[in-house]
Amino acid sequence: MSNKGQKILVTGAAGFIGYHLVKKLLGNGAQVVGIDNINSYYDTRLKFARLSETGIPADANNWNSPVQSSKYSNYKFVRMNLEDRGEVSALFGEEGFDMVCNLAAQAGVRYSIENPFAYIDSNIVGFMSILEACRHNNVKHLVYASSSSVYGNSGKMPLSVDDNVDHPISLYAATKKSNELMAHTYSHLYGLPTTGLRFFTVYGPWGRPDMAYFLFSKAILEEKPIKVFNQGDMYRDFTYIDDIAEGISRVVNNPPEGGGAPFKIYNIGNSTPVKLMHFIEAIEKALKKEAVKDFLPMQPGDVYKTYADVSGLMDDIGYRPDTPLDEGIQQFVDWYLDVYLSKVIAK
Description:
By secondary structure, the protein is an alpha/beta fold. It has helices at residues 16-27, 44-53, 85-95, 109-114, 116-136, 171-190, 212-221, 241-252, 276-287, 311-317, 325-344, and strands spanning 7-11, 31-36, 67-68, 75-79, 99-102, 141-147, 194-199, 202-203, 225-229, 235-236, 239-240, 263-268, 274-275, 292-296.
């Protein structure tokens, strides 16, 4: 699917999903501007390595100054905080974006218990800056990252966008639900087309080192115990990163229409729940090494099961993620061994 002729802002461009989306959009012919504050939530060497893959040099440290990619003539990057609404507004005024993909956010469920204000600053105040900038600069479509965590501990499966999501069980989930409410308000008041994507446990190469598959791989290779919460009795709808990037690029081209509020929410997941123990087995198989397992109770803020109903995405966009778990895990492990350990961490 082509994005040729579109000028697209991607926030969180040095992040996991943002990096893959930037490459997808560039390959589809879009003019892309990426922004990220490159915070220290996890090892910044990985973030700078992602930027390097898209031709952005180390002087991306310069705040609020665009850096041209050396690999892509249609890409430049700006280091910026979304909370700096004056800088965000100025960037929108200078660039004239057609579409915006807001993926920047403070991630992590457990981290939100210890660092709540980081989530308010980035996920609420930062998102407000984006909404206002879109409103005042005639952006044709705002696509933003929500999360499957908004469903809380729903006992109803599969999880549907029509389900009630008024009972989040982590602050991270509450900020994502807030984003959906804020977007709906701007769609209703100002006619801004907005689409929220509820991601379901995204994994793959160039992923975040705080995610379970990353932590498991590291521990298995070091012959250290892995933490298996709720005695391994948990289910996740693991979604491969290439499927996510493809899905977002298609959604960008399909802004919601109609009277009232041009507003839409989609689940984007593999729609196949996988038990945590099977997930661990897939990693063991790819690494050719068995894990030492430390079985622990459920952690605060965690949910027992996620399983996406993706019928809306299929009906409206004609797409659903479908990469098999074993294939995706093998791709991650190959990258982890060949790139991450030897080129990113070795720096």
